[in-house]
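Appendix B. One record, verbatim.
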Amino acid sequence: MTTGTTARTLALLACATTTALSLTACIPMPNSKKSCDVTFPVDSPERLGSGPAFVTAAARRAADKSRLTSVDEIAADAHWRRDFDQMIVLAANTARRAQNIMEISYPEQNICFTGTPSVGGPDGVAYLFLRDGQPIQYVGLTDKGPIEDLRNDQGFDGPIARGQALIPLNGTLVALDKRPPPR
């Protein structure tokens, strides 16, 4: 047994013990070094603004093929408090879920979720907004969202900065440094 396998086994045992003692659970991602650095309730209050208003503003911007935009401009259109610095796009086929739990892993930390994620179906997507690496609002959709992360076929490749340029591509917004998936 390798050191990585041993660490994952110990993390799973710790997670199972924790799960037996509480209503919260965690699922280590493959190659995860630790289980959950942060656990975020999906049904937390909307601290930045209305999730549906953000999605509507993003869809309007995606339909305008004549100009670049950014997550910051979308937030302004949605009348959001811009008290965040990053957004992560989560795709349903990537989110590791077990009942009401899912976890994502990105370079800064592993984040687990409690509650009922509304990422449904093969095209489901959710947006997670962070400030200083900490999650502050979750916006879940059941359909494909107006902002996509196309950097890899996993549907998740890390945070999009608040002011990063997004371009309209086939009715969705993608970060300027991203390439469409191969056909």
